[in-house]
Amino acid sequence: xxxxxxxxxxxxxVLGALGSAYVxxxxxxxxxxxxxxxxxxxxxxxxxxxxxxxxQSNGENTNIYPEVSxxxxxxxxxxxxxxxxxxPLLQLDDSIQKATVEQQRSQAEAAQALLQELRAQPRKENLxxxxxxxxxxxxxxxMAQDTLDKQQSSFKLDPExxxxxxxxxxxxxxxxxxxxxxxxxxxxxxxxxxxxxxDIKNQEKQAEALEKAYTASSALxxxxxxxxxxxxxxxxxxxxxxSYVSPQGAYDTYTQGFDPIVVMSSSKxxxxxxxxxxxxxxxxxxxxxxxxxxxxxxGTNTKIPLEFVRLQPYVSPKIExxxxxxxxxxxxxxxxxxxxxxxxxxxxxxxxxxxxxxxxKT
Length: 362
Description:
By secondary structure, the protein is α+β, with helices and mostly antiparallel strands. Helix content is about 40%, strand content about 25%. The chain contains 5 helices and 17 strands. The chain has helices spanning about 1-25, 95-120, 125-155, 165-195, 195-220; strands at about 45-55, 60-65, 70-75, 80-85, 90, 225, 230-235, 245, 250, 255-260, 260-265, 270-280, 290-295, 305-310, 315, 330-340, 355-360. The strands form 4 sheets. It has a 6-stranded antiparallel beta barrel with strand order 1-12-16-14-13-17. The longest helix has about 35 residues, at about 125-155. The protein is rod-shaped and about 185 Å long. The model has no long low-confidence stretch (mean pLDDT about 85).
């Protein structure tokens, strides 16, 4: 009985194995692909990875870095917003710079006021005082001269009528009055002449220097408001209110590097595609006047013709990686730039990676 049971189980196992082998041997119908993989539309096309960029006459996107350091107190735009040249984007804390500007403005105004004072000399009141001093000195000299004349006349008539000491005092008094008149006369002429030319020139230079310092400080104050350098669209703002930024940019916690605080694209309806041609494929690149290309947006069947714009005649190390397993990071590539306009209903964004085939016109 036991042997029969074992035999039955063995037969069932064999039948199960045969059935499983038959079932798994039947080929399953493959699933239809979500999209058709990009195919080379040219007989001898060159494949390249492309990065979508905003349309620029040169360079890539507009990366904005502050020219001064400080904490962000206000963000005045949102990502995706179209702005015109001069539109304020960010506001940095400028309280210290504002105080510096006010201080230098006051110093410039004080220097200008002193210069005006020097140019306005002589002051009428000072000139009148100096003239009165001359008149008083003239009167004192006349009185001293009259006294001396009287004593000399008396001495000539009778030497015993005037003592030698009194005569000497009268002579000395006349000399002192004469010298005093000369001093106040020269002081009057100096007052009348006004400020010295060299003093005015020196004050002019000081006022000019302080005015320039105030102008420079005001220009620096304006840099605490980050403005759009050109018309375009704000693609990303890499900082928040309270973040500290510097001319190096904003610190990125994840990459532990520095990024531009704002990245802008052009406001045109066209885009550029920067293609990186493998240095091995450069000899197969057609001449510029015969270049044609087509790109495929990844994950779709959308194919867009490209217009050749320019190439950058400098082969450099590749830094834009496509995450392919066989990709080498020490590869050198030649950048070639194409331009396109998205078809209606197709969304394309700067920074998107696309597949590009480059061929020659027939």
